[in-house]
Amino acid sequence: EPLAIAADGAGWRLTGVITNVTEAGALRYRLAKLTPKDRIRAWIPHVVLNMLASSPAPVTTVVADDRVVRFDALADAASILERLVQGYVAGLVSPPPLLEQSSFAYADSIARSTQGPEAARGKALDDARSAFSGVPARKIRGDVDDASVRIVFRDDPLLEGDTEPFERTALDLWGPLLQATQKVSRKDLLA
Description:
Layout: E1 3-9, E2 12-18, E3 21-22, E4 25-29, H1 36-49, E5 60-63, E6 68-71, H2 77-93, H3 100-112, H4 117-133, H5 147-152, H6 164-180, E7 181-184, H7 186-190
Parallel strand pairs: 4-5
Antiparallel strand pairs: 1-2, 3-4, 5-6, 6-7
Helix pairs in contact: 2-6, 3-4, 3-6
């Protein structure tokens, strides 16, 4: 049964429905490897679900061929959604310094790092650059393989020079998602 939603923020209102919501929370699935795009498609309804008093359970489980992840309950869902909407509105004015593969690689590297801040940042930028370029020999596509990315960022290489806007935007989008993510074994999923 779809769950009707309505959320209000500073100058905006979000309405719609969230599907695949059960007593145990929301369920998303993909019959392929989990991509950053799959994560964000599950994340936004999860954030909204956490804002609703009528939410049956404030968790979302994402099942893909290669992994299962769960987004845990959020204490600050309203502020997360506000930042997402602000990012969306800013993106309507000019292209945000944010690309699917490279921004996720950057934020994921920062989140998993056990190094000091500067070493973690350097490795995360290297990971972002690798995700941007992809690995053609292994048929791993990068952000650069998207024609619109090549057009939008042709005169302003995103990961060269001042990378601070890219880094800040990547962490704003992916940081809360990664913090709320738990890996789930398929065995535990069926239990």
